[in-house]
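Treating backbone geometry as a discrete language has practical consequences that deserve illustration. The sequence in question and its structure tokens are set out directly beneath this paragraph.
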Amino acid sequence: MGNRKTSLLSTKSQSLNLTLQLNLATTRTSNMKPILSKTKNSTKLIIFLSGLFYLIFFTWYFSNFKITTWGKIDITSSSIVESYFWTKREMFWSKTLDRIKQIGHHQTKTLLLEKYTQIIPVNQPWAPLRKYKVNSLYALFDSYYQDEDWTSLHKFSQEFIKIYPTKANSWYHLGNSLKQLGQNQSAAKAYYQALTIDNTHLATIKNLSNLLLDQGQYYQAYKVLLPYLNKIPTHGSLCFYWGEKKFTLNNRFCTAKINQKEYAMPINTDNPNHIMVRLDPPLGSFLLKKIALVSFDGQNTIINNFDDWILSKDLIRDQDNHFHNSGNDPYLYTTLPDSIKLLDYNQLIVSLETKKSSDPQINKLLSKLEQKIPLL
């Protein structure tokens, strides 16, 4: 009897547990229904918003409507979208170019520069990546000039023209490649195109003038030089300083030429310690022939050797007494020997022949032309 009661109680207990588990499961299921419903609704909302975003994005991008103008460039709906992606990509292309330039092996670097130049996208004229393509082209040009690879220079200079058709440099490099390939007529056309854009582009002027000189076209060569020569300011006055240990504006005299090749100025000092002299020549290239110190009795002391004179950083000695300036403050100075006392002289005459240009190559071209065209 007791065992029967115990079995009955165990059965009831199991039934109760089963009932409780079923109730719990039912409760959980009923509670999950709103959660599942919310999840489905959220998914639908995300899908809807994503579709709406892409619809707006593609409508904005492909409609390409004009918003405003920046200089000569139209700012459109598509350009605004693209500018974001270009900005993100700019860092990648910049770092890649820097790494290529650091490669020590010359041929490998040239090959990678060529690949870089070919794959970098610069379809839009305003694209920020254009500058990296231009920089890579300049690096390539250096390699081609070094290797004398004129065929590759010709190929990639045409790429440069596609990016910058209105830059004189673009046509200058094309002209160089054509000249080296023996196509002188085409080279001259490319050089003339560069000078049409900038008629004072010095590198083009030098190469085209030499090309025309070699072909015996002397007047045409001079016409090429003229715009550059006319751009150079006229030579100013020459200044003479004297002093003891340094030069001051109080002991200075400036004058223009008294004739085609001479400057004359008074020496006005009563200080026996004034033993240093300085000349500030006019800007440009010049030949300093001599300095004549004229005494009170009319006797001259001639100085025609300036090897020991000290030059400023803006004055360069080409050869012997030929100089040209490389900046805006050219001068040369010296300490006079004991045999020369400024107190004994009352006038200084400087024989100095100036050239129109301060560029030695231009001066050589002018000298050649003067021999061929006597009236220059």
